[in-house]
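Weekly structure sync, notes
Attendees: PL (lead), two postdocs, one rotation student
Agenda item 3: pending single-chain targets
PL asked that the sequence for the first pending target be pasted directly into the notes so everyone works from the same version. It is reproduced below exactly as submitted, 228 residues in total.
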Amino acid sequence: MATIGIVAGSGPDAGIDLWTKLLAATRHQLGDEYTGDADAPRVVIVSEPELGRSMELEQYEAEVWAALERTVRQLDPQVDHYAIACNTLHHFAPRLGDLGLGAHLVSAIDVSRAHVRGHGLETVGLMGARPVVDLGPWSPYRPLGDDTKVVTAGLGTELHQLIHDVKTHGPGHPGLADTWAEIVADTPADTILLACTELPLLPAPVTDKDLVDVTDLIAEELARLART
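Predicted structure, written out during the meeting:
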């Protein structure tokens, strides 16, 4: 059994959510072969609060990168594969690759592109923090445009503020679910990638749109790799 690493802290709730979804994906993939705790994945989690500055990546790039490099170097000798429970931090994926470490990063971008290609999606909505959805130099999701038309949701402050409020007050805070439902309704796409680990923590809005949780996609890949 391979050992799985999870980088948490941006935010800590997202790290817990990824671990929970990894366990659920393991149970689903093993089916009747999952007989109890001994079949659960082996997981190491490091939660680094400094990574929470990723919401303002333009301002804190140096500090965030230092915290991420330190965290990944701590994980590397303990794990075979790892994931970062934050979409924005995948901006640093090329730098992580340049470190020459042994552990393999399961990329949010790779699993998202595989989903888009596998389902033949011609248009997808993208929901995430401002550094992600503006598809500028800080966004790791720019390559997604090679495979499909990308429409972004909640540009400006609305969606970014919603994510910040989930981090600060928790997903059950009054009004947050309603705000999210309005943003989903206003996004001109039938399929929307939730490229933010906080949004899936909110109650799912009533909608005919397909909301694809990137954390679920990562968890499914981690569960597969854990058995290799």
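Discussion points:
- The radius of gyration is 17 Å.
- Residues 134 and 155 are 7 Å apart (CA to CA).
Action: rotation student to compare against the earlier draft before next sync.
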